[in-house]
Specification:
The complex is a heterotrimer of chains A (about 500), B (about 325) and C (about 90). With about 500 residues, chain A is mainly α. Chain A is built from 20 helices and 4 strands. Chain B is mainly α and about 325 residues long. Classes of the chains: A mainly alpha (about 500), B mainly alpha (about 325), C alpha+beta (about 90).
């Protein structure tokens, strides 16, 4: 009788799992020194399931093909001057925020997954993490290559690397990822693999990239959706990680629950920037933040947490607060950036009538009551030459590092303040979620490099706003301030006038 | 309606990013490699010390004893970024597929006699574990290293080693009619056969090296230049009538060594040239690991070829190579 | 509330046979069209059958090839030679 051939699953097991061995010349704990201090108990690494059984040859083949397609689009976009065909030059501001705020996180993810891909003791997750490390490098590099073309024409993009390490609002995404990178490998996997990739990134990539398509940016939608096809692999890794940890030992549940709570809230705060991009910065909006939240958190997250309930895992703490905030967060963030437009590396504007009407329709419970009147007042002040700027430096939340502009749950006219005292110092927070995170690890969050504190301590180029902006390498009058009157606007109008003239 | 845009209107305001222009000494068009690589890693104003290693920041130049004024000096001569890396490997892999099909259709391995099959199983297949260990080391160099110029090619190299481990695994599946039995036997040889124990001990010792550039030198000049070259370059005679199919099925490895060697040589050479102190450290590391690799290679060479001459030849070639990079051994 | 198994695909020529196969093989599937993408939702389980895709594509097709057009998904994945299934069933 002929010996039995291997099936696909066993074959993959041989191609990956079989490669690893228990070391004997060096103790395993010396080879893997970082995977035990978090208190996670793993009885049997071999119980890990590989959902996508991708060998390197298949990886190269698929990824090489995706890259050929993507770069063909990028080349065509540049050759055809696709930047002139976007819906409006205001659109370019989402790319500024994306490249300065999001792309550097992809790089961090690349290095973080290399860490997990070396230091988790199980071979299955290690291989998956290494592929994700490669993918994340892909994402940052394709984003740079896509937006590179816009950088040739639009301001606010050129110093993205320098700004990410310094500018006040960019410390929000930066500290988010520094937090994950400085955590142990299991927390990193729950933070990025599960909470961010599985629960939250759809909110960033699916409706937002669809918005890019709708606004005529074929290059961004191509990298966005192409990146998201890797993301599906990452999501399966994220869900496998959480199931694996919960199945391995009941003692893991409280640790994992704490991480899920923490990283859900951290992610929710960072994604507030995306909420603003979707509701305010896409000249032709496709879906409101609230709608996206309903589809991708309430509905998709609901299915997920129903599934995970069998392990005793609960819906993240404050998920209800986050859902209630979906009615407010984009508006409150846009208000912050509008007030501080002189210190921001992208342009702001007050929405026009049609856009206001769209917001009224999408946010029937809150927009007309709390936000529309403010926008109309600010627009009126602009007309009178009294455009409103906030010249005081804001107090920042010690955890999420966003200016303390959010309101109390259930009371949208009162700013929320929370504080904790540690070793005689008082720390301030925007919400119960951020306070809880601090209280869980005060020694960690007391270290935060808070941009406003740093300015006051003299570590950011000087004592005046121009000194600080200079230290940011912000090209004052081009990178910052309102869209109206900006060089971006002037250039756009020239292109557009040319088009109209030639069409006549 | 026709839409025409005058060329003059579309003159770019700038040609590249600010940090790239400062590197190039002015605003000029940059390559995709440059834009995807230079100064990409964050350098300043980190928020929290890692819980797992609070003595360092997660990006920290002090994680190796060598000192560079600028970690963007050791560039990749291949100018790989993700797309060019993957497309290059996808192309190379088409040749792998053709070679496997050729060998499989003619059953060139299946019809070998049992003794030669056994020799391939115990003498060639265990190298997949050495690739896997090498994969771990390059992932470590990527996560622990400093500056995208070096760390990005390290994760590419990690991917390459996994790919090569899987190519060797496929050779195993050709030898045992796709049952996996040969791979189990080969793993047993890796764990227990005296011919492989020096090699296994060496790679396990590299796993605990926490100085990432030391590890990089151990991997590229010790493991790659001595051990992999012994098996892929100096051991043809061991395979007798299987030498040609083995050469076909491991063609990827031969091409990869030639190509990756250009990169790793350039990195070692550049970092050693930075200072006398770097040169002394790297020379010491290179000597240690080439010597150790030679000692580990001797029993393996003897098992494969009858004597240790090939181990000496591989080690001597590695020494010559190291000297050509400016090291004193 | 039902748990929703979901897949989001590029809305292009390469994905069309897969979308059609899903529509044919999954009664009650709901479709959300977005610029550039299409989201397909179904209660509890959503299946892509290799045979159905091949029938529409006119060539052999590996479920792994879905990676080239995949944008997102929800549900536990089970993939083998003949199908790609997203499910909340246990």
């Amino acid at each position: 009788m002929a010996p039995k051939k291997l099936g696909l699953k066993q074959r993959y097991a041989h191609m990956t799992r079989g490669l690893d061995w228990e070391t004997s010349y060096q103790p395993m704990d010396a080879v893997y020194p970082f995977d035990s201090f978090e208190g996670i108990k793993i009885k049997d690494w071999s119980a890990w399931e590989d959902p996508f059984r991708l060998t390197m040859d298949a990886y190269w083949k698929f990824q090489g093909e995706k890259e050929r397609k993507l770069y063909a689009v990028l080349d065509a976009f540049a050759q055809n001057n696709g930047q002139t065909g976007i819906s409006d030059a205001r659109y370019a501001n989402v790319l500024k925020l994306f490249l300065t705020g999001v792309s550097p996180l992809e790089y961090q993810a690349h290095r973080g997954f290399a860490f997990a891909g070396r230091h988790l003791r199980g071979v299955g997750p290690r291989v998956a993490c290494q592929m994700q490390s490669l993918d994340e490098l892909r994402h940052v590099q394709t984003q740079i290559h896509t937006i590179s073309h816009y950088n040739k024409y639009f301001d606010g993009i050129s110093e993205f690397r320098h700004m990410h390490d310094r500018v006040w609002y960019l410390s929000v995404p930066k500290s988010f990822f520094d937090d994950a990178r400085s955590a142990g490998p299991f927390e990193y996997m729950i933070a990025i693999g599960f909470a961010f990739e599985y629960v939250l990134t759809n909110l960033l990539f699916v409706p937002f990239m669809s918005g890019a398509a709708y606004n005529g940016d074929m290059s961004t939608v191509t990298f966005g959706f192409s990146a998201q096809s890797d993301e599906s692999r990452h999501m399966t890794l994220g869900i496998e990680v959480i199931k694996f940890l919960l199945e391995q030992h009941p003692d893991n549940l409280p640790i994992v629950q704490k991480w899920v709570d923490k990283w859900f809230w951290r992610g929710h705060r960072v994604l507030g920037l995306v909420a603003m991009m979707m509701d305010y910065m896409l000249p032709k909006p496709v879906m409101s933040w609230k709608e996206a939240w309903e589809i991708y958190f309430t509905e998709a997250g609901g299915s997920l947490f129903t599934d995970l309930a069998r392990y005793g895992l609960k819906v993240p703490k404050y998920a209800d607060v986050a859902t209630a905030e979906a009615e407010h967060i984009s508006h409150q963030n846009w208000a912050i950036f509008y007030q501080y437009t002189h210190a921001a590396g992208f342009h702001t504007w007050m929405p026009d009538k049609a856009h206001l009407d769209w917001l009224s329709e999408k946010y029937p419970n809150t927009f007309d009551k709390y936000y529309r009147p403010r926008w109309e007042m600010w627009a009126e002040m602009e007309k009178q030459g009294k455009r409103f700027y906030n010249n005081a430096l804001p107090q920042l939340c010690q955890t999420c590092q966003i200016p303390m502009g959010y309101t109390e749950p259930g009371d949208p006219t009162t700013i929320a303040f929370r504080c904790s005292e540690v070793d005689g110092e008082t720390y301030h927070f925007c919400s119960d979620g951020c306070k809880d995170i601090f209280d869980g690890e005060p020694e960690k969050y007391a270290q935060s490099w808070l941009p406003v504190h740093q300015i006051f301590q003299g570590n950011c180029g000087g004592a005046t706003v121009p000194d600080v902006l200079n230290w940011y390498r912000m090209n004052v009058g081009a990178d910052n301030m309102d869209y109206v009157g900006s060089p971006d606007e002037k250039l756009w109008n020239e292109w557009h006038a040319g088009k109209v003239r030639d069409a006549v | 309606m026709t839409v025409q845009i005058k060329t003059i209107d579309l003159e770019p305001k700038r040609h590249t990013f600010g940090h790239i222009a400062r590197r190039l000494g002015g605003d000029k068009p940059a390559t995709r490699y440059q834009e995807a690589t230079l100064d990409l890693q964050a350098t300043d104003n980190f928020h929290y010390k890692p819980l797992w290693e609070p003595e360092y920041w997660h990006y920290d130049t002090r994680k190796t004893a060598v000192v560079m004024e600028d970690w963007y000096k050791p560039l990749d001569p291949r100018q790989f970024y993700y797309a060019t890396y993957n497309i290059s490997r996808a192309n190379a892999n088409q040749a792998v597929e053709r070679n496997f099909t050729f060998v499989e259709e003619r059953d060139l391995l299946g019809k070998l006699d049992a003794a030669l099959k056994a020799k391939l199983i115990s003498g060639l297949l265990p190298i997949r574990h050495l690739h896997w260990g090498s994969n771990m080391n390059m992932a470590e160099a990527c996560q622990r290293g400093y500056g995208t110029a070096v760390t990005a090619p390290c994760i590419f190299s990690a991917g390459d080693h996994l790919g090569m481990a899987q190519i060797v695994s496929r050779i195993g599946l050709l030898l045992d009619e796709q049952t996996g039995a040969a791979l189990d036997t080969a793993k047993d040889a890796w764990m227990n056969d005296p011919a492989w124990q020096g090699v296994r001990r060496l790679i396990e010792d590299t796993f605990v090296e926490r100085d990432w550039f030391h590890l990089y030198v151990a991997q590229t000049l010790g493991v790659n230049a001595v051990l992999l070259d012994l098996v892929y370059k100096h051991a043809d005679a061991a395979w007798g009538p299987a030498a040609v199919p083995v050469a076909m099925l491991t063609e990827f490895m031969a091409d990869w060594r030639a190509e990756e060697g250009k990169w790793s040589d350039a990195v070692v050479k550049t970092v050693a040239a930075e200072s006398e102190a770097n040169k002394a450290l790297i020379s010491g590391w290179a000597k240690t690991w080439i010597d150790r690799a030679e000692a580990a290679a001797r029993p393996l060479a003897t098992a494969l070829l009858g004597d240790a001459a090939a181990a000496t030849a591989a080690a001597d070639a590695a020494r010559t190579r190291a000297r050509s990079l400016g090291l004193s051994l | 509330m039902a748990q929703i198994a979901s897949i989001t695909l590029l809305h292009n020529d390469d994905a069309r046979p897969i979308i059609e196969a899903i529509l044919a093989d999954n009664p009650g599937v709901r479709v959300l069209n977005m610029p550039g993408a299409v989201k397909l939702d179904r209660d509890d389980e959503l299946v892509i059958n290799r045979a159905s895709v091949e029938e529409r594509l006119g060539r052999s097709w590996e479920p792994q090839e879905i990676q080239l057009v995949l944008i997102s998904m929800a549900g536990n994945l089970d993939e083998d030679d003949d199908h790609f299934t997203l499910s909340w069933k246990h």
